[in-house]
């Protein structure tokens, strides 16, 4: 059995690595995706343009403008001369927000009366507008604390000082790069595995494989191990890039990370074999892989928390292997999570692998009938 398995594994690796296009797909795009997505896939809002309509001639209006201009969030500050310019800027999306300072802004501050600001936001970019509104509110609150009324009331105000655990400087790449380790490994592992059986059918070697001395479970193992080896190679490259290129701290155990990665890649390969067993051509296999991969990314907690999803949709995420491995890889990198938590997240991966591999084996047996 071991000789037959070794021959099938070598054959699968050669089928992938001897193809120049296959080698290019396995090496080039994943590295490019890691480098590009690490900088581009971010929910931070920076380098945005803001317009200010200052109708106040006092000191506090100018102080507010200087504080907004000095914020690293905003790239350029445009001074408007009228409300019509503000409307044109928002309508044409040349500014994401506009701040109107009323004529009595400084006078009200000196008199200890409430001083209002009007902030006009581009609702077509709702998420970015909400974040920009939060930045402007923080700037306004900091200015209010330095006004005469703010200093008098300072003793009666309870101040909050946030302390961020695991990522003190809120470096977004510390969150993004571990996510990419899991998601790109899903992409490569799923596509390589999904194409394996479909490629055999197109080349006319599937029937030869079925009548060979190899048994069903040997075929599954032989088709399972090469994508897992390729996936472990990519995960290793991503870990090295995360630590040495992006300076992401690795606080946890590599042993736990790689141990759980084996079960994760096993579940991914199981899904790929199930898709491949259903597909008759490589085109169908690729479409099937993407049909699973896009919902898997959206339902994994990669971009939005699972808790924010509707109650009826949250149970669907339980069959998504990416959901569990994201918890592991981020926890090992940033939190040094214990063995018990890794085991809790690895058990569902093992169950997914068992179910998908059993389903693939059942489909193979039906082909033989």
UniProtKB/TrEMBL annotation:
Localization: Cell membrane
Membrane topology type: Multi-pass membrane protein
PROSITE patterns to which the protein is assigned, alphabetical: ABC_TM2
Residue ranges constituting the ABC transmembrane type-2 domain according to the UniProt record: 133-367
Domain of life, per lineage: Bacteria
Alphabetical UniProt keywords: Cell membrane, Membrane, Transmembrane, Transmembrane helix, Transport
Residue spans crossing the bilayer: 174-198, 219-243, 255-278, 285-306, 346-364
UniProt keyword Acetylation, yes or no: no
Family label: Belongs to the ABC-2 integral membrane protein family.
Protein name: ABC transporter permease
Annotated source species: Rhizobium indicum
């Amino acid at each position: 059995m071991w000789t037959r398995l070794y021959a099938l594994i070598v054959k699968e690796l050669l089928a992938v690595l001897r193809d120049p296009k296959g080698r290019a797909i396995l090496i080039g795009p994943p590295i490019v995706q890691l480098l590009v997505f690490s900088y581009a896939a971010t929910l931070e809002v920076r380098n945005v343009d803001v317009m200010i309509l200052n109708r106040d001639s006092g000191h506090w209006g100018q102080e507010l403008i200087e504080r907004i201009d000095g914020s690293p969030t905003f790239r350029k500050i445009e001074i408007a001369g009228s409300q019509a310019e503000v409307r044109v800027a928002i309508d044409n999306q040349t500014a994401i927000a506009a701040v109107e300072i009323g004529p009595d802004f400084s006078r009200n501050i000196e008199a200890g009366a409430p001083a209002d600001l009007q902030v006009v936001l581009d609702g077509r970019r709702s998420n970015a507008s909400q974040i920009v509104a939060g930045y402007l509110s923080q700037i306004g609150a900091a200015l209010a604390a330095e006004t005469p009324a703010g200093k008098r009331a300072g003793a009666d105000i309870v101040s909050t000082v946030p302390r961020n655990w695991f990522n003190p400087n809120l470096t977004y790449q510390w969150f993004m790069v571990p996510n990419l380790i899991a998601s790109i490994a899903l992409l490569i592992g799923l596509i390589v595995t999904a194409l394996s059986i479909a490629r055999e059918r197109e080349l006319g070697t599937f029937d030869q494989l079925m009548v060979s001395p190899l048994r069903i479970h040997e075929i599954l193992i032989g088709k399972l191990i090469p994508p897992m080896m390729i996936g472990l190679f990519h995960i290793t490259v991503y870990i090295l890039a995360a630590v040495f290129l992006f300076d992401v701290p690795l606080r946890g155990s590599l042993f736990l990370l790689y141990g759980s990665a084996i079960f994760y890649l096993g579940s991914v390969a199981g899904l790929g074999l199930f898709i491949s067993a259903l597909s008759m051509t490589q085109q169908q296999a690729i479409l099937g892989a993407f049909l699973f991969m896009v919902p898997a990314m959206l339902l994994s907690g990669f971009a939005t928390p699972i808790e924010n999803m509707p109650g009826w949709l949250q149970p669907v995420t339980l069959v998504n292997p990416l959901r569990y491995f994201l918890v592991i890889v981020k926890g090992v990198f940033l939190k040094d999570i214990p063995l018990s938590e890794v085991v809790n997240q690895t058990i569902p991966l093992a169950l997914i692998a068992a179910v998908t591999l059993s389903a693939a084996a059942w489909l193979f047996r039906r082909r033989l009938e």
